[in-house]
Write a structure and sequence with these properties.
The complex is a heterodimer. By secondary structure, chain A is α/β, with parallel strands linked by helices. Chain A has eight helices and seven strands. In chain A, α1 (about 5-20) runs parallel beside α2 (about 35-45) and α3 (about 55-70) packs across α6 (about 155-160). Chain A is globular. Chain B has helices at about 5-30, 35-50, 55-65, 70-115. The chains are: A alpha/beta, B mainly alpha. The interface of A and B includes residues 49 and 52 of A.
């Protein structure tokens, strides 16, 4: 669970996660927060890794994957610390991996009858990413900007390497994983509007995001990415 | 096309030699790492060469289709600055990745120590 200045919101999320998966290790990667996110997380019984300065959500998430690999965890579920994702949905994401039906499971806010209406601009952006992801992978994802996802053992080892695009996560990750040959699938989850704090998609960053997506769409076929190739 | 006057030749030669030895001196004092100096040395060397061997500049001017040798020089200058900028971007990208990995490593190690300490 990557977290940046989420002290006010993370406690509730951790309690929810603890209730949903009582036997799991809950890891919070504090991305150089200036508030007491780390202390709140520790008090809630989570294991905390503190990055010395702010490096971005992608880097924080990858720090978690690296820890998972070193400490021998099989599966990783990643969710936002700001309360947008419903921790009770964690078992939903894990189930297909445990059953061996998928390597990567993405929580989609648009599958099933879940009410989530983003603003018009955000909808347009999501539409564009969806189209790009489809162009790149041939798979129609309903929610490519979801940061709520579960990885199986092979995927965890893969995303802990330099192949993981830490610069701008979500959609790029789907494309990279798909190209590496992993089996991706989506499951419906609940998502809520942010209860305060700063979204990472604020200001000019979406513009950069679109640029980066276009760049990776253009370059990915030219790169020699390792093909793990598992029943593509 | 008129050749350089002795006045111009001396000035250009002194300037480019100064540039060359400035880079060498920085490397000698370890203020500049060898790996970053080669592009600068190459440029200073090219400057000296073009001053001493003015006909080469005329030939290059003819080859690239520039009107005057001055155009050729400016073109070279812009291309060189572009090369330096790209070179630095590559270095910065590498350093960014290294800093990221170091920060992650540090965070993971210190969390392990925290765990041991209870």
């Amino acid at each position: 669970m990557p977290a940046f200045n989420e002290a006010a919101r993370i406690g509730r999320v951790l309690a929810g996660a603890r209730a949903a998966v009582p036997d799991a290790t809950i890891l919070v990667v504090d991305d150089g927060s200036s508030d007491d996110t780390a202390d709140v997380a520790r008090a809630a019984g989570a294991r905390v890794v503190r990055l010395p300065f702010n490096l971005g959500a992608g880097v924080a998430a990858q720090t978690g994957y690296k820890l998972a690999v070193r400490d021998g965890f099989d599966c990783v579920v990643q969710l936002d610390a700001d309360g947008q994702h419903e921790p009770a949905d964690i078992p939903t994401l894990l189930a297909p991996i445990v059953r061996g039906e998928a390597d990567v499971v993405i929580g989609s806010r648009f599958l099933g009858g879940v009410a989530y209406r983003p603003g018009i601009l955000r909808r347009a952006g999501m539409g564009l990413f969806r189209w790009l992801a489809w162009l790149m992978t041939g798979v129609r994802f309903s929610d490519v900007t979801s940061g709520f996802r579960a990885f199986g053992p092979d995927v965890v080892r893969f995303v802990a390497t330099e192949w993981y695009p830490t610069d701008y996560a979500d959609a790029d990750v789907l494309i990279t994983l798909r190209r590496a040959g992993f089996r991706l699938r989506e499951e419906p989850v609940r998502m809520y509007p942010r209860a305060g704090g700063r979204s990472m998609h604020a200001g000019l960053r979406p513009v950069y995001y679109v640029f980066k997506m276009l760049l990776s769409v253009a370059l990915a076929p030219l790169r020699n990415e390792p093909a793990i190739r598992k029943g593509v | 096309m008129p050749a350089l006057t002795p006045h111009q030749t001396v000035f250009a030669l002194v300037t480019s030699l100064l540039a060359f030895f400035l880079v060498l001196e920085l490397v000698r004092r370890r203020r500049l790492r060898e790996e970053y100096s080669w592009l600068w040395l190459l440029t200073a060397g090219a400057m000296v060469l073009l001053v001493v061997w003015y006909r080469l500049l005329l030939v290059i001017t003819h080859v690239v289709g520039a009107v005057t040798p001055l155009n050729t020089l400016l073109l070279c200058a812009v291309l060189f600055l572009f090369a330096i900028a790209v070179h630095y971007s590559v270095i910065i990208s590498r350093l960014t990745t290294q800093v990221k990995n170091l920060a992650q490593e540090l965070a993971l190690l210190s969390s392990r120590i925290d765990q041991r300490g209870g």
